[in-house]
Amino acid sequence: MPSDLADIPLPTFLVDRPKTTAPDLVKVEAAECPEIHRVPLGSLKAADSPRLGGVDHEHVEVLAQGDIEPILVHRDTRRVVDGMHRLQAARLQGKETIPVRYLERPASEVFIHSVAANVSHGLPLTLADRRAAARRILGSHPDLSDRSIARITRLSPKTVSAVRRVSTEEVPQSNVRVGADGRSRPLDAARRREAARAFLAEHPDATLNEAAASAGISVSTACEVRQRMRRDKGNSAPRQSAARGARDRNPGGVDGRTPDSRCAEHGGPRRAEALAKDPSLRLTESGRALLRWLNERAPDLEVGRQLMAAVPPHCSVVVADLANFYATEWQRFAHALDQVVAEAGEE
Fold first, then answer.
1. d(CA 161, CA 177)
2. Rounded-to-10 torsion of CA 328, 331, 333, 339
3. CA distances (Å), 139 to each of 114, 144, 167, in order?
4. Which one of 103, 134, 222, 271 is least enclosed by Cβ atoms within 10 Å?
5. What is the DSSP string of 50-72?
6. What is the pLDDT of residues 244-299, one digit of tens each?
């Protein structure tokens, strides 16, 4: 096992992450061809514009007083994606051609790219324009998450969520959401994991493909569920044996706490102390960095239990979800370590 753990990914909520990049669906620049072409004005179709008020003629007159920058046009349909004001300004100048960059994306995404382009430069879209655009995107791409649509329209996720609720009857419903990282996530992920767990408990010899198909999850998720079940099964017997031994030695308990709670309290610090004495960690820069990192993030569960009384009832679900999220991230970290140990054993 490598002493510096350089190949082990840290839990994502514990590290400084770069700003999440938008999915390809809204990366207008990445979908544009860099080459500039000059095309006849008459060959272009009017934009499917997100502007409810249409073209602003005063803005067109301002643009007509200078050079016309290239506009964005969807190659397959010849429809203007971004640049209707510049197109009108070129006509006002008496031009016959206009510089164009082409968009290489499916026609179903043209409106999304139009919104994304118009909120980033030029004449700003109004709040009403952006809300209407969000409503329309929800209709054509209901699987996009609120954050993804918020990033496209420059609205807040809360506003997009409100638009989604108002549009529930009209907007097609989807059981998944495509996040700002481009990954699809089911809305009922916890229920699906539990279904996979139940299936594997009933069919211990089933393949991962069968478990994944039964619960509608990915094979990798089914693998995580199976490994967690094995880990829980392996840990339950020693814990039960230790608990029985503690009860036999001290049936009443000295401090009124269960043996499991005392084990949880002392097990962590003892393990951390043992790690701190390991020369492969203590005597290397990366090892010391790991020890500092673990020490800074060691949970103080006793303080947490005391603070539980301060959690308002209406916030308890959110706090519990947050705790479960942190626990899941740590579980992924532990799973990555288990894989390294397994691979080292195979070698």
1. 13
2. -140
3. 16, 10, 8
4. 271
5. S-TT---HHHHHHHTTSPPPPEE
6. 555 555 554 444 444 444 444 445 666 777 777 777 777 787 778 877 877 776 66
